[in-house]
Amino acid sequence: MIEFQNVSYEHQKGNGVNNLCFKIDDGEFTFLIGPTGSGKTTLMRLVYFDIIPQTGSVIVNEYSSEKMSNRKIPKARQSIGMVFQDYKLLKDRNLFENTALPLHVLGFPVNEIPERVEETLELVGLDGKDKHFPHELSGGEQQRACLARAIIKEPDLLLADEPTGNLDPVASFELVRLLETIHETGTTVLMASHNYNLIKGRGHPILELKEGILRGN
Ligand SMILES: Nc1ncnc2c1ncn2[C@@H]1O[C@H](COP(=O)(O)OP(=O)(O)OP(=O)(O)O)[C@@H](O)[C@H]1O
Ligand SMILES: [Mg+2]
Questions:
Q1: Other beta carbons within 10 Å of 14
Q2: pTM exceeds 0.90
Q3: Helix residue ranges, H only, the chain
Q4: Which helix (H) or strand (E) holds 10?
Q5: What is the mean pLDDT of residues 89-112?
Q6: Ligand 2 centre from 45 Cα, in Å?
Q7: What is the pLDDT confidence band of residue 167, given thresholds at 50, 70 and 90?
Q8: In this structure, which residues have their CB less than 5 angstroms from ion ligand 2?
């Protein structure tokens, strides 16, 4: 589902990722770990075609970074759900509207949207908060709102960038369990975290980044 071939990306002021090579098969649950600044978000953005590598190629499903164009990006992202480290919730829309947005974009039947939103908010533990605007949600609630928005379209691939960054240990553990439940329904999951304790011993493959380089490479 995901293949990186000798991928390098350098940000404008230096730093980034260097010569990454790996593959993630369909249906896998993979953890991406590494200290702060090691390049996890950069790698996630490459998978989401938010940035295009300067060298090498990123292949996600049938899409390649080498043939990517602005016109193709929405199509390439159609089957990808992304939980952003900095949420990116729309401030002037309430939780219901933020969560429903991807369904509107996909042209989902409008009369089926409320039920789908309700189910998704219940799944992430935010039922009853649908009228709240982002600033009326706690940090952890905003994080779960971001997860709801990412999973509502039932993507084939779920990218979760530090999805437990604002959660206490119990809620973090529950969130990983929830991602595992989503994975059990057939979704490929890539989750980035610098919290090794949260992910160790769960039997999932681990990609380890250090200063922009994958360990073992
Ligand atoms: N937009 C940007 N412009 C310039 N440099 C950037 C940009 N984004 C990230 N960097 C730099 O690239 C490096 C990797 O950053 P990245 O955000 O990928 O790390 P990370 O592993 O996600 O860290 P964290 O755990 O803190 O989220 C860092 O040194 C950072 O300063
Ligand atoms: Mg990051």
A1: 6
A2: yes
A3: 40-47, 73-77, 95-106, 113-123, 139-151, 169-184, 196-199
A4: strand 2-10
A5: 96
A6: 10
A7: confident
A8: 40-41, 85
